[in-house]
User: Fold these one by one.
Assistant:
Number 1:
Amino acid sequence: MDSMLDANTPLHELGVEQDILGILKTYFGFTQFRQGQEEIIRALLNRRDVLAVMPTGAGKSLCYQVPSLLLDGLTLVISPLISLMKDQVNALEAGDIPGAYLNSSLTPEDYYDTIRRAREGRYKMLYLAPERLKREDLRLLGEQVPIAMVVIDEAHCISQWGHDFRPSYFLIQSFIQSLPTRPITAAFTATATDKVKADILAILQLEDPFILTTGFNRENLYFGVQRIPYAQDKMRALLEYLKKYPDRSGIIYCATRKTVEDLCDDLNAAGFAATRYHAGLEDEERQHNQDDFIYDRKPLMVATNAFGMGIDKSNVSFVIHYNMPKNIESYYQEAGRAGRDGEAADCLLYYSPQDVQTNRYLITTSAPGEPPRDPELVGHNLELLKAMTYYATTHDCLRSQLLAYFGDTPGHYCGNCSNCTTQFESVDIRVAAQKIISCVYRIEQRGKRFGKLMVVDILRGGKGQKLLSQGLNTLSTYGIMADTDAHRIRTILDYLVAQNYLVLEGDAYPVLCIAPRSWEVIQEKTPLLMMLPKESASPRHKQSEDLEGLSSLDESLLSKLKALRNHLAHEARLPAYIIFSDASLQDMCRKKPRTPAQFLAVSGVGKVKMEKYGNLFTRLIQDTCGRHSGGPQG
Ligand code: ADP
Ligand code: MG
């Protein structure tokens, strides 16, 4: 490929505006920096080391890619995931930026070819896995080519306190020291705990670094918790969601490999194009499935938490957690893979109380052959689980819960989470609570104890075999809440347990028992208030409104633009979002550009993409919408 840039081109010959905004538009197609980007870029151009902590999707790549184009010499980017380097390099090439990668997926010929070209100064950026750093050829490269900057992406991998510790990250520091001149060193991560930050600073020996931590809020993400008392009802909730929003790409996280496999099969049987990913699959299948997802051949990815680190697919419109994760750190990181393109996206958690039991088991029980768990670590992890469970059950603003957890100081109402948008009302549950507690009491009088499921069933007058065979239909409380929805009874029941009006005993099969405080409720004459969703309230949120806001013309234009993009992507063997992100296509629908100049104003369209694709897209827009209505012709 004939590149517009190579490492030896003096800046004044670049033929582009030298200011960084010019670079941003020309090569990346954006007109504005996002929070933190410009400061980091300026620090790097002033040759300062950098530690940047920014949430997933904030746009960390651009922070080093822009300066790498302006610095003399090569930028090395250390990244833990070889499967994604190709993607990053494709994205650079789509903007005619010369980049390459070195990892074990290359044939020996390609590997040496790449090294040779790097030596000749043909690249601005070279991505590598940290393991490569111990190779002699890389050390030599460092002597033959000026290395302007070393970027450490996913820098938390260097810390044993992080969740993705990678011992080979320890090679980075000695590699940097072996270089003839010390390059600028820039570390990027989304993990902000103090221990991890301290490790990054110390191990990489950053010199007087510019440290920037942006806020954790991601405004375009809608957070929702759907409380689904019975795990077997989750599939129905999922299908409802997927039917409501067809054609969207999303990730569905499950707690276990088995759930991944079952759910993926079920979705395919229901006619959805889903693929799967977990650590138990062969490497080849994993890579293949990941590509199917990234290249939009299969819009749905069903996966365990093994999937996703470094996934840069920008058009992930939703992340659904089919099971509650073990802690909020994992939840926020996984959920944050939605909406990287800045468009509205959903992060939904399907919570059933059984998830707590499952996680508890996973945290406390060591696998066969494993030594018993360190009790201190188990205790720590149970605390984290508690915070996660609180998130799943709270009636407060979900976003404020998350942000407060990470140390931000949010307001109490965000207006874009399921608790803020679903209208809650204060309900007097005194009578319902008295009915539930009497039911537990009557059961105890018969010398029996049951779990929540059975108690709800008795109250609703269920006709299950176990219930009838034990004569529970003769209890005086049988069927006294037949007109109340099971979910609502369950919600109230959970609340009574949380308030110690009832207790749960037993670990494996917890059963409901009368508690000392139960009598307070029975004797209570004043209202007992609880926040419950209005029974008529239907969930309403920004994303659906956004879509409804598109006129039918826009929708048909959008699907034509998508078809064109997908066709081009297919021909170029690139993931569709590398040609244009969904955000760019939506901006085209808004702006309806008919001329090159108008096309250049679209977000994500830079000089290179305009030259490559401008004609095709503007012509399609003219054909679909007429020649003139979008603005003056150029
Ligand atoms: P991170 O590494 O921080 O998780 P990425 O670097 O992968 O995030 O960027 C996420 C998405 O944001 C990408 O699709 C990228 O093109 C987009 N992006 C980055 N900076 C900007 C910007 N200034 N304006 C618009 N989109 C941007
Ligand atoms: Mg990244």
Number 2:
Amino acid sequence: MTAATTVSEVRAYAAMCPGAALEPYRFSHRDLAATDIEIAITHCGICHSDWHLIQNDWGVSSYPLVPGHEIVGTIARLGAEITALRQGQRVGVGWLAGACMRCEQCRAGTENLCRQAQPTCVGRPGGYAAAVIVDGRFAASIPHQMPSEVAAPLLCAGITVFAPLRRRQLAPCSRVGIVGVGGLSHLAIQFAKGMGCAVTAFSETAGKAKDAAHLGADRFVWLGSEAELKAEASTSDFVLATPPVDLPWAAYLEVLKPDGRFCIVGAAPGDVRLPACALIGGQKSIGGSAVGSNAEIRAMLDFAVAHHLQRMVELYAMNDVNKALERLIRNQIRYRAVLVHHG
Ligand code: ZN
């Protein structure tokens, strides 16, 4: 297959200014570079980050803004240097659409840590569209057993929780705490369980106990007050915090066993304030994690197939995108919304 340079018009949904409802929008694709592919999109998950970008909460948005970075579709065109993929192949793309591929991190296979990593829908049109152009090296082949609506949310929500759990190399029967039962954590519970861990789900919503158990959580701790958290002192080897809100950080460090690690993947708006002694006593550590590398995405997709990940998605036609976003901000999605593009 050779590089095509046709400029075609793409149908999409875009926010025309910060905070605006999305509306139909057409744009012309740039030419394909030698390492690019064009994907005809069939599915795109809706991530909380899309909402932040629409609002320009992070000061990086440009308008018209086409959100979307949990993309699944088939390859429509390939650049001249792409040999590992073929036209018509089903692939997925997550938060990253490219990186420099030359720096220390890229050469080590941790492209997600590249300082020039290119987010899929920042400064370029994302996946709420009929097609997207990305660096072909950032497209993962979707296992044939996996439905596209299951694959889409894995590409951002899934890898965000899978990568830190996997990097920790938790021994079977390690005790893992997952904070929240939502878009990211409903996948984290399943991954941790699949890794053989004993999983405790922490949530402020008592009504989520049943779902947490259904997803595989061994225990559910309803956070009605800080007393509930205190009762969990020294019970977890690893705690993953997914909600993008400020938490009682010091109280959560108490939940860790000695040598335990607390990992933040939900971008809390405020500072993380802790007494130093909360870390020193018990040699505890706290850190963060940002999506995952291309290799980690491939490992996650295989893991999800092997462990029969459950499908917990709500499907929306592309022209219902504002309805889906409305439910997202009201916390009503169970547990991930996926836009379906009907061509
Ligand atoms: Zn995301």
Number 3:
Amino acid sequence: MSGMLYLVPTPIGNLGDISLRCRETLENADFIAAEDTRVTMKLLNHLGIKKNLVSYYEHNKGFKGNVILDRILAGETCVLVSDAGSPAISDPGEDLVRLCAENGITVCAIPGPCAVITGLSISGLPTGRFCFEGFLSTSKKSRNEHLESLINETRTMIFYEAPHKLVNTLVDMQGVFGPHRKISLCRELTKLHEEVVRTTLAEAIEHYQQTPPKGEFVLVVEGAAPKEKETATAEDAAARVAQLVADGMSRKDAIKQTAKELNLPKNVVYDAALENNA
Ligand code: SAM
């Protein structure tokens, strides 16, 4: 009979956040698949647990995934942990879960610490509807494409970000969402220097240009205001194109952006701009 895969969330800062059930599951596992065995070893030492560790991370997940799968198929119970938080959320655990599911293995996820949910709940922004956007790309082009795809997103948006990329990301967000969009920057959650800065994109940029960011961040960004039911008119479209061109955007880009913002087909915006000499 095959074994099982357990997903065990680990503290995102405060070691006291490990639950009794997580502890028990780690104790009962045949082996633990860990993103960074040194990080997990520290946690196991803290808990007084001795266990066989297997490394499973981004650059060995193809090969190691199959090794882990074979052991589970042979009857062993594996616990998957990431460096911190819930495995499979913005880490390679996602692939191991898929592999196990495809091979008919039972996967059991234990609830617990997760940076995205902790950040959202503390943000002060609407939590009723939200979307998790993970990490933005390090490439400026892909980062902007990702952000532009969210221009009409009305749900609260959540991103993961590293401190050295924070200011560039905020500048790009301001370019797409505008300077007044609210943002809650949740830093070092559950740790000694936990901090939540609830502000706007423009103020956040000013703040972190003066005070270089430190620690890990969850960025929670207010969604766009819901669109008025009324459909935008040709005059609205022409006026918006004219405004964007006056702000320095090329006419082609201004038409593209206006079409996105006003939810109109590009050819309609193009014709409106032409008729109104925008
Ligand atoms: N799977 C984990 C989860 O969802 O909880 C997250 C893994 S992801 C590789 C790591 C990112 O989570 C960090 O870059 C940061 O954006 C966020 N993060 C993790 N711990 C955090 C903390 N204590 N405070 C703020 N953000 C944190």
Number 4:
Amino acid sequence: MNGFVYDIPVKVYFGENQLGHLGEELGKYGKRVLLTYGGGSIKRIGLYDRIIAELKKGGFEVFELSGIEPNPRIESVRRGVRICKEEKIDVLLAVGGGSTIDATKFMAAGACVEHDPWDFLNEKRAPIEKALPIVTVLTLAATGSEMDCGGVISNPETHDKIGRLAPAMLPKVSFLDPTLTYTVSPYQTACGAVDMLSHIIEVYFNMEQDLYMLDCFMEGMMKTIVKYAPIAMKEPENYEARANLMWTSSWAINGFVNGGKQQAWSCHPMEHELSAIYDITHGLGLAILTPRWMEYCLDERTVSKYVQFGVNVFGIRADKEPMAIAHESIERLSEFLFDTLQLKSTFTEVGIKAEDFPVMARKACAGGILPGFKPLEQKDIEKIFEMCL
Ligand code: NZQ
Ligand code: ZN
């Protein structure tokens, strides 16, 4: 095992009826709160009223920023930064899915600097040393943004979708109430499941080191997703299914499973280029890409990882030829994604066109090499895209 730093300082309130602690937690940071949310789902599910009641009870002065888009845009971040500065906000309260939380992270950081927040993400990579405190109430299990220090922002003008990590943007507190995800549609539930599965696969598929303990942990999380995502789609108010998915989403990406592994990710950089141009749901893009990427990276050197995955996650019999097990693993994953979760399986079905492959592939590897499970150059990524047509 390589050396690593274990530091996951997000306080989590998990379970039903924890919102009573909201006032006490926010109050540690001040009285002027910026409440951020998306397109209105929090109003439709009655959460907005509950939050406002808690804030009134605590005597907070509340400012609001609504309309944060799925695949959140830099313009929303800029609006939030303006409010933070003009209203001297003390703490930001993000209520929603990954898009709301991600945008709020960059508002919190942008409030502490003079420059445009896009400079955190473009080639200037302006340092993120400070951010206003962030508290989150999660309503969709998927990205893990509630417990990680990353965020991904889109700029439709430049067709960019760019991520950035910075410890200063870690939420101080996150409220994880599985009942708040009962209203998430089967489609978004499926996309969320694929996102967390992909976060694990990006780390698990690694030939550098043997981290048995972490591999077992990741296999357990992947089995949890395979078991509970279909149940949550069919029985949206199944508490155990929603709870298992929610806690998995956080642990898939909160840094624990990395444990010294330093390998870069592969499917995520490729997917971000799809949603940058086509504004598709992140989990859907990952579903289409992942089995093709696995097929492309399979060879004599990597086959053992596919065997481990197929046997331990999908229960494939171990007494066959390794290559046969590897192919069966990819098939079982594809069945899960496209039959069980009912996601579209090709670029053609979602309108992604081959003419954009060169530019998307070049940006995914930044014109050089994407140094993941198997290093990929532009031409490799274009081939993977072609397999997705
Ligand atoms: O906008 P509202 O009205 O709230 O509706 C949302 C949105 O339409 C809806 N929704 C959320 N909670 C709901 C609900 N509908 C009914 N009931 C509820 N309880 O779901 C839709 C999608 O929401 P969104 O926040 O966009 O989804 P998700 O959580 O999957 O976030 C996706 C974004 O996160 C980024 C993705 O790239 C994408 O931009 N990611 C962030 C990461 C991170 N911070 O670490 C890592 C990921 O890999 C990912 O890239
Ligand atoms: Zn993701």
